[in-house]
Please model this.
Amino acid sequence: MNQYEVLNIRPKTSVHNNAGITIMRVKIIFYIFFLFTIFNYLYANESEMWEFSKNTTKKKEPRNNLTGQFLLLGIIRTYQIILSEQQGDACNFTPSCSHYAYKSTKHKGVIIGSLMAIDRLQRCNPWSWNYLNIYYQPKWVDGRGYRLYDPP
Model:
């Protein structure tokens, strides 16, 4: 008989519920994505997004409520805020691939913007520097160095 059976107690063990933690992380990411999607819908114009204190009496233009476009832009913004920082400075291009996808989707629409973003992601690889001065021009970006300039 050991000491635990005599006292009729069990030693405390630290058992982590990994499935519960994973579900909690997924819920948090979903809530953050949901909030950024709503934020993106409310402030669809980028010039208004950071001007909370300015009193603008500008006449509001009617907006197209394209749910697919707002959903896709919300997904891109969520990626930029949550995952892009963890990857570091990996993109060869300026503007970066996520900014390119955001701008092309916003200006060209969901279908054409998505196709442009997919094309850009396929071209973003270490061998894209081989096409310097053929398809792309170098551009100096502060804090990032030389990048290939490819506007949307």
In short: Residues 3-149 form one domain. The longest strand covers residues 137-141. The radius of gyration is 24 Å. The chain has a mean pLDDT of 78.
